[in-house]
């Protein structure tokens, strides 16, 4: 028996097609959804992601402004840039690419973004609303995971979801969204004792660890759904996830590849959030 490979690339294309149509209908009413991406320093991985976001925006007929600054930008200068974007009526979404240089306090920066333009879903107002189940911009990677499960008719209700990783941007919110879908959620992390005893009980296993081939077939329950959020380089410099993909193929029921799994969904959800923000500006769409 071989696992079904969850195709994030194809699913993201389908979503983007729908997003593109909604962009057109907004545009015909005079509103072009606009995303501002702020990039500081010259981390090559960040540049690749940011280029990807810009390209996707443009392919969907959205506006994308890239604001690039040197590593030496001061925190107060960045806060002024964000203030300007908060007030700019043509900008519906603001994304400050993380990680930031050490001299800038990430929390202060996130806090400065107007929650109505917080398309990453990282602002405490967004996080709070998400956790109590109110309307909010959902963080893109966890939301992308939920969309993938929906696309493949995998209902988390009553299932044991084990999340490895407790970051504010992936692990923690992924567990919360699964909880809202009525999963029983366990969080594991770097201080978990006996990780494998938990992973082996997972009906849905979400890995956001950041270590190449960290999980193999010994870690998973037969028939598990394995969602790999890792973005690592293997010994040959190739992009790979946390999961030894080939190894789990004959034991899992579903598995996401890297690349082509969760990553493309993250970008699609960012586009959707930017569109939603722009649609909000139109009273008649409410
Ligand atoms: N404020 C902020 N928001 C973010 O959402 C954010 C961020 N900062 N900092 C960096 C991480 C990382 N991230 C990715 C998005 C898409 C892919 C993606 O599309 N990956 C492709 C492969 C891309 C490649 O070939 O390198 C895939 O998995 O198929 C990867 C990583 C968003 N991030
Ligand atoms: Mg995101």
Can you characterise this structure?
The termini are far apart. The radius of gyration is 19 Å and the shape is globular. It is of the alpha/beta class. It has 2 domains: 29-116, Leucine Dehydrogenase, chain A, domain 1 (Rossmann fold, 3-Layer(aba) Sandwich), CATH 3.40.50.10860; 140-264, NAD(P)-binding Rossmann-like Domain (Rossmann fold), CATH 3.40.50. α1 packs parallel to α10 and α6 packs across α10 (262-280). It has 10 helices and 11 strands. The mean pLDDT is 96. It has helices spanning 8-27, 44-59, 75-87, 106-112, 124-131, 140-151, 171-180, 195-199, 245-248, 262-280, and strands at 4-5, 34-40, 63-69, 93-96, 160-164, 184-188, 204-207, 225-228, 232-233, 239-240, 254-255. The chain has a 6-stranded parallel beta sheet with strand order 1-11-8-7-5-6. Strands 3-2-4 form a 3-stranded parallel beta sheet, with helices on both faces.
């Amino acid at each position: 028996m071989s696992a079904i490979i969850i195709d994030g690339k194809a699913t993201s294309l389908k979503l983007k097609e729908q997003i593109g149509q909604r962009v057109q209908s907004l545009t015909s009413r005079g509103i072009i959804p606009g995303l501002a991406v702020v990039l500081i320093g010259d981390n090559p991985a960040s540049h690749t992601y940011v280029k990807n976001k810009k390209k996707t925006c443009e392919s969907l007929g959205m506006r994308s402004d890239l604001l690039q600054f040197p590593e030496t930008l001061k925190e107060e200068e960045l806060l002024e840039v964000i203030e300007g974007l908060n007030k700019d009526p043509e900008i519906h979404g603001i994304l400050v690419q993380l990680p930031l240089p050490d001299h800038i306090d990430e929390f202060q920066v996130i806090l400065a973004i107007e929650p109505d333009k917080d398309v990453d879903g990282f602002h405490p107002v967004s996080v709070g609303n998400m956790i109590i189940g109110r309307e909010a911009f959902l963080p893109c990677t966890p939301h992308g995971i939920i969309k993938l499960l929906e696309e493949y008719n995998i209902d988390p209700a009553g299932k044991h979801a084990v999340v490895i990783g407790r970051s504010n941007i992936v692990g923690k919110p992924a567990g919360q969204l699964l909880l809202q879908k009525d999963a029983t959620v366990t969080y594991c992390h770097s201080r978990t004792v006996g990780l494998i005893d938990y992973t082996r009980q997972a009906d849905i296993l979400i890995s956001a660890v950041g270590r190449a081939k960290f999980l193999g077939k010994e870690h998973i329950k037969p028939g598990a759904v394995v969602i790999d959020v890792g973005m690592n380089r293997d010994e040959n410099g190739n992009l790979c996830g946390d999961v030894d993909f080939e190894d789990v193929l004959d034991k899992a029921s579903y598995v996401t590849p890297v690349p082509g799994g969760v990553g493309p969904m993250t970008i699609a959800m960012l586009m959707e959030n930017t569109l939603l923000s722009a649609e909000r500006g139109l009273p008649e769409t409410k």
